[in-house]
Amino acid sequence: MGIRIFNRKNVNDVTNCGGNYVFYDKERRLIYTGVASGNKGKQWGKKPDQRYEYGLKHRLQSYYQKDDFKVHNEKKWRGQIAFFDCACEPNAKKRKGIENRLKTKTKYNIS
């Protein structure tokens, strides 16, 4: 998709498919990589296709949540996110392989 500024508008433009995402700091250094499953959750409406989706958009939006850093100390780096990139990948094994390759280049992933 290409590196974009990490803001709500750009995140809302992302599809909710399964795939990989990466975060960069203001100098565009890779700081974190992750994976989103793209799974479907519980039904929220009467139509069969009205289900919660846990894909890239959902995962990226979660980085806007307020957390208690005394409890979730590992999330303190989120304030450093300036840019992101993501790509859909339907194959779960390929998603994990991509994530593992990228993790070796990041500052905050714990392997």
Task: Reconstruct the topology from this structure.
Elements: E1 4-5, H1 8-12, E2 19-24, E3 30-36, E4 39-43, E5 51-54, H2 56-61, E6 83-88, H3 92-103
Antiparallel strand pairs: 1-6, 2-3, 2-6, 4-5
Explain this structure:
The mean pLDDT is 85. The radius of gyration is 15 Å and the shape is globular. The protein has three helices and six strands, in the order E-H-E-E-E-E-H-E-H. The protein is an alpha+beta fold.
Features of this protein?
111 residues; alpha+beta; GIY-YIG endonuclease; four-stranded antiparallel sheet; 3 helices; 6 strands; 27% strand
Query: Can you identify the CATH superfamily?
Result: GIY-YIG endonuclease
The name of the CATH architecture is 3-Layer(aba) Sandwich
Domain module count: 1
**CATH domain topology:** GIY-YIG endonuclease
- Which sheet architecture does the biggest sheet show? 4 strands, antiparallel
The geometry reads as globular
Helix percent band:
10-25%
Strand content: 25-35%
Q: Enumerate the strands of the largest sheet in spatial order, edge to edge or round the barrel.
A: 1-6-2-3
Output the number of helix runs. Answer: 3
